[in-house]
TrEMBL record:
Region (Disordered): 393-415
Biased composition (Basic and acidic residues): 393-402
Name of this chain's protein: VWFA domain-containing protein
Domain VWFA: 476-659
InterPro entries tied to this protein: VWF_A (IPR002035), vWFA_dom_sf (IPR036465)
SUPFAM superfamilies: vWA-like
Superkingdom of origin: Bacteria
Length: 664
């Protein structure tokens, strides 16, 4: 046996490694950390396509193809091709008949010529009158039959794709089979409306007439969808014509169906299809701007495809509330863009699905939210971004030598105190016991060799004899990050940087300093504690007021709950305090800031100083009033003032936090 190996083309590579959804989340994180919402970040990711998957198209690429295909279809041709061809064949038949009558000098010939001169201008009416005309010319009779065959094929093809080829040669048996098919189809639809239809009925129908339906539907629902979309396209074709063209073509259709004995069956079918699919655009006009005249079947096919592309474009845009990739019809994608586009769409769906199934995204009441797991991942991303801008020499640890429960032994010891969890220094403890006179002889068995009584020495230990071994440990800190959420942060474009900084600091403390107690406080007209899982989706407050007074109050409570922890307070703001908390719990706002607001805020700064908390301020604006205020804060507290750009805020905050922890 011989084997040939080559590139796999029948869909996605089955041996390709699974896509890492964490890369997709990181790609979303860039947008989320820049201020976007999770739903918009996911939508933008799906539009761009998967990062690192260059062979996969995103929604935007598919959308461009759809729009290009729509433009090509609109420029393909004109809708009146069948009318134009029917008029040409009619004029040809009449000309051939006149050529046959002209040499004949009889009155009958002149009477026939007068009848031809009196034919209506309307093509359908003229064909109706000539249907009973006795042609003198054999060529004219053949041309007229060609015209009728053309109309029969085009009209039926406009309703059933593929019947044009089946009726290419006039065959009474073929027409009778079409009549029987339509009768059986209507009976099956009536049976389904009564709830009596089964899949076996459909299978028997397709076994008998399957060659007339090249789409190969698998059930009645698919067949109804195929026929309804084509019937709606036929109605749109008529609606897109001029009133005269519409009247003329409608007359040709009705006349052709009457002559074929299909008018009643077609009426029943049309009513059933319209009732089942009223959502289709049945009478919406469409404009085709091409020069080539299209036959009815081709025109209906073009309009049917245009309708598909219009619906597909709406689904691919994903710009409506609650939009999901599951809304995109894979069959429409396959018809419009081919099999490879279906594979690309499935890859995008898999990412959307995996982000939810792996616990990164959560849909709650139709709203997309980040889970705590995703927030941790985004925090790590923000932290990596901060550390990438720091020099390696500035990333040092902040260990200190002190009694503790973790780390390497220092070689020294100290007396045990209640609550200590350090390892017992056995040697020093025993030495202390011996020195305190705690040696005792316990009675033992008689010595078999000497016959004398023996004993074992023991050491009695008291609480004061115990010593514990000292270890290196990391100090614990109570960290407060106060982030301005006021409207001015969004106006100055600094809010996204503040959110990234908060996430980075949260991730740093959680991963590198788990013993620290961190609290992030957002403040605008009021202050509130921000939970880690709400940081990524957090947005600024569209209110007036920068209530640093309230934020410092909350931070003070956090520090008081951890009296043995080293206090670290960091403030990120772009404006001086303009609000304070009154005794009744309401916020008082005033611009310019009132003396009461400044006094209350500075009094909380003094309390921070008494707690030994260094308060460092990162100001994101160069306002003179803000400079004056932060200089006063630095004078009272001894902290430092930074004026970083928004792009370097995270670097400054994290660096300062590490410096403070090392200094402690």
């Amino acid at each position: 046996m011989a084997f040939r190996y080559g590139e796999y083309h029948d869909g996605p590579d089955p041996l390709a490694p699974p896509y890492d959804v964490r890369a997709a989340l990181d790609e979303m994180g860039d947008a989320i950390l820049s201020g976007s919402t999770p739903v918009h970040a996911l939508r933008d990711l799906l539009k761009r396509g998967l990062p690192g998957a260059q062979d996969r198209r995103g929604l935007d690429d598919m959308l461009k193809q759809v729009r290009r295909r729509r433009r090509d279809l609109r420029e393909r041709g004109r809708l009146d091709g069948t009318l134009e061809k029917a008029r040409a064949l009619l004029d040809k038949a009449i000309g051939q008949e006149r050529a046959e009558l002209f040499p004949d000098p009889s009155d009958e010939a002149r009477l026939r010529e007068a009848g031809l001169d009196a034919l209506p201008e309307d093509t359908a009416a003229a064909i109706q009158e000539l249907s009973t005309y006795e042609w003198r010319s054999a060529a004219a009779r053949q041309t007229f039959e060609e015209l009728r065959d053309l109309l029969r094929r085009e009209v039926l093809d406009s309703q059933f794709r593929g019947l044009r080829d089946a009726l290419a040669n006039p065959d009474p048996e073929a027409m009778e089979r079409v009549r029987q098919m339509m009768s059986d189809l209507n009976d099956m639809l009536d049976k389904d409306a009564r709830g009596e239809h089964t899949q076996a009925d459909f299978d028997a129908f397709m076994a008998k007439y399957g060659d007339l339906f090249p789409e190969k539907p698998r059930n009645l629902e698919e067949l109804v969808d195929i026929l309804a979309r084509r019937a709606a396209a036929t109605q749109r074709m008529l609606a897109s014509m001029t009133p005269r063209q519409r009247e003329e073509l409608a007359g040709l259709i009705n006349q052709t169906l009457d002559q074929a004995g299909l008018a009643e069956q077609m009426r029943r079918l049309g009513e059933a299809l319209h009732a089942r699919r009223p959502d289709l655009a049945w009478n919406a006009p469409e404009r085709l701007t091409g020069e080539e005249p299209l036959g009815m079947g081709d025109a209906v096919t073009a309009l049917e495809e245009l309708a598909d592309l219009t619906q597909l474009e709406t689904a691919l845009r994903q710009d409506y509330p609650g939009a999901r990739l599951d809304d995109i019809d894979e069959a429409a994608v396959r018809r419009a863009l081919g099999r490879s586009a279906v594979d690309d769409l499935e890859a995008l769906k898999r990412i959307e699905r995996e982000l939810e199934e792996q616990g990164y995204l959560l849909r709650r009441r139709g709203k997309l939210e980040l889970t705590p797991k995703a927030v941790r991942r985004l925090g790590e991303t923000a932290l990596r971004r901060v550390f990438s801008s720091l020099d390696a020499g500035r990333r040092g640890d902040h260990d200190q030598h002190d009694a503790g429960s973790a780390g390497e032994l220092t070689g020294s010891s100290r007396p045990w105190r209640f609550g200590d969890e350090q390892p017992i220094d056995v040697v020093r403890t025993l030495v202390n016991g011996v020195r305190s006179g705690g040696v005792a002889i316990r009675p033992g068995q008689e010595n078999a060799r000497t016959g004398q009584a023996g004993g074992r020495a023991g050491v009695r230990l008291s609480v004061d004899d115990f010593e514990v071994a000292e270890t290196e440990r990391r100090s614990a800190a109570a960290v407060c990050l106060l982030v301005d959420l006021s409207y001015s942060m969004a106006l100055r474009g600094t809010w996204a940087a503040a959110k990234q900084t908060a996430l980075a600091l949260q991730a740093l403390v959680a991963s590198k300093f788990p013993q620290d107690a961190v609290q992030i406080i957002g403040f605008s007209n009021y202050a509130r504690v921000l939970q880690p899982d709400e940081l990524a989706g957090l947005d600024w407050d569209m209110v007036q007021g920068t209530n640093l007074h309230h934020a410092l109050l909350i931070a003070g409570r956090h520090l008081d709950r951890h009296p043995d922890f080293e206090p670290v307070v960091l403030v990120v703001t772009d404006g001086e305090p303009t609000a304070h908390l009154m005794r009744n719990g309401r916020s008082a706002f005033e611009w310019p800031p009132s003396s009461e607001t400044l006094e209350l805020t500075l009094s909380e700064v003094d309390k921070m100083t008494r707690r030994r908390a260094t308060l460092n301020v990162f100001m994101l604006a160069a306002d003179d009033r803000l400079k004056e205020f932060v200089d006063e804060v630095a004078r009272r507290n001894g902290g430092r003032v930074f004026s970083p750009s928004a792009e370097r805020l995270g670097e400054y905050v994290v660096s300062d936090f590490l410096r403070l922890r090392r200094a402690r």
